[in-house]
Prior knowledge:
Layout: H1 34-45, H2 51-58, H3 62-74, E1 94-102, H4 107-115, E2 120-125, E3 132-138, H5 141-152, E4 158-166
Antiparallel strand pairs: 1-3, 1-4, 2-3
Amino acid sequence: xxxxxxxxxxxxxxxxxxxxxxxxxxxxxxxxxxxxxxxxxxxxxxxxxxxxxxxxxxxxxxxxxxxxxxxxxxxxxxxxxxxxxxxxxxxxxxxxxxxxxxxxxxxxxxxxxxxxxxxxxxxxxxxxxxxxxxxxxxxxxxxxxxxxxxxxxxxxxxxxxxxxxxxxxxxxxxxx
Length: 176
């Protein structure tokens, strides 16, 4: 969706803590109906779709489509609009998943340090044999080595890491 076609998303407020603990609670999400889900599928396939084309494809008025999209943004269902990047063509030809074992109860501290790593693309707290799954894109293996052996190992809460080099990847497109 072109920027001039959408209302500005609300300014981000204070971070809402995840998990137990003091802090403001998010309101429960409103249920999505079939039209909302169709709109989401369309925008995932083409985030630049015009309000008019969205309205025509889901069989609602432009005003209704506009209101629904704005509600999805306000409710935090749509977190933003962006481009799908071919990392290799963008000079980030080496990708890797890195698994981390971290000190118990250090997730929030570690997450903040991982967010600022160059090339970090996705961070997840997971259950299983390791605690954190990190996806990174770097220009080459030398930059990946620097990231793992210097930057990650310098985080005191990181107990161990394992690097899984990505040979080929494919992004799954939502069905239309």
